[in-house]
Design a protein that fits this description.
heterodimer; A: mainly alpha; about 0% strand; flat; B: mainly alpha; globular
């Protein structure tokens, strides 16, 4: 390992502190015993669906549409998930099916 | 009848588990990959597990491998971690109401509030007869355990996996896609979901894959605040 044990532990703590700062700050800024400002309550209501949309895009940030395979395996898998989910409406089935299709595509057809 | 006799915590765990199966799949695969990668860089299993257990922040942990292999610089590690994890700020805002009144357990729920747990908790409700707090805590702790355990497996036995796991981590993408579709079932969520996608895509197009998170979050915030009168019907 390139760093000493002490340096490694400090680096791990620094990374953890950064992550926890982002997780705890909202709860520290707006504690339970005080009514949060209207705007914050509003954001708390509208953010979840928007952030799940964010996460969908976030997952594809590394996918290139200009380089082979042009995001085609991802596109096919997503379309498959949407159709399967419309048909059966079963969350786990749709996830398992979409993952299986994607694995098949990247392991057999779109082998980089 | 048998259901009634089980301990409430067991009932909560049983109710929570199916929701976390996609995370089990994705976290084991990614955790194993992380453990193996750390191993390759000279960090044995105790170090990768320590990082996963203490920092518990998937994508940042992969970024931190670079930090662990260059010059020691904790302040830079901290600042980079804040930037890469900034999206958690919005998860916290979303959970202020949901995690209200949970006492001591709340700190644990916040500590383990990752992308996947956030997406499940904001989409799923506990079934009747299952305590809300135990249900959410079960989801959080299961997801946390999967990640740490996956890291451990990767550190000790990553090379022994007998089948081709390429693409298996797509389970997490599929999870977000399906939870997005579930959110879209409610008409009042549709515009919000599209705003989330639109703002993020725009940020990604303008700033590129390495820089888009903060601009996208800012854009999202501006649109949500500016459109408040229209969105708040």
């Amino acid at each position: 390992m390139p760093l000493t044990p002490a340096e490694t532990i400090l680096t791990i703590l620094a990374v953890a502190l950064g992550a926890m700062a982002t997780r705890f700050t909202p709860f520290l800024l707006f504690p339970e015993n005080r009514q949060p400002p209207e705007t914050i309550s509003y954001l708390g209501r509208v953010l979840p669906p928007a952030m799940i949309g964010f996460l969908v895009v976030y997952c594809f940030k590394g996918v290139s549409v200009t380089l082979s395979p042009y995001g085609i395996p991802e596109l096919i898998s997503i379309v498959f998930i949407i159709l399967l989910h419309r048909w059966k409406g079963n969350v786990l089935l749709s996830i398992a099916g979409g993952t299986a299709v994607y694995m098949f595509l990247v392991q057999t057809i779109f082998v980089a | 009848m048998e259901q009634e006799q089980k301990h409430p915590a067991v009932r909560a765990l049983a109710a929570a588990f199916p929701h976390t199966i996609p995370v089990l799949t994705g976290f084991l695969v990614l955790g194993i990959a992380y453990g193996m990668l750390m191993q390759k860089k000279g960090y044995d299993v105790q170090w990768s597990v320590l990082m996963s257990a203490v920092a518990f922040c998937g994508s940042m942990q992969f970024v931190a491998i670079t930090l662990l292999t260059t010059v020691f610089h904790p302040l830079q590690a901290f600042l980079l971690s804040v930037l890469v994890n900034a999206r958690h700020l919005f998860y916290g805002l979303s959970m202020l109401e949901k995690y209200k009144g949970f006492g001591k357990v709340k700190a644990l729920l916040i500590y383990t509030l990752c992308d996947e747990t956030f997406s499940i908790v904001s989409s799923a409700s506990p079934p009747e007869g299952v305590d809300r707090q135990s249900f959410y805590l079960s989801i959080s702790l299961l997801d946390y355990f999967y990640w740490v355990f996956g890291t451990f497996l990767g550190g000790v036995a990553g090379k022994l996996i007998p089948f081709n796991t390429k693409g298996l981590d797509f389970a997490l993408t599929a999870l977000f896609v399906v939870l997005f579709l579930e959110q879209m079932k409610k008409p009042e969520n549709r515009v919000l979901g599209l705003i989330g996608i639109g703002a993020t895509v725009l940020g990604l197009a303008l700033f590129g894959a390495d820089q888009f998170v903060l601009p996208s979050m800012g854009l999202l915030l501006v649109v949500l605040l500016a459109g408040r009168k229209l969105l708040c019907r």
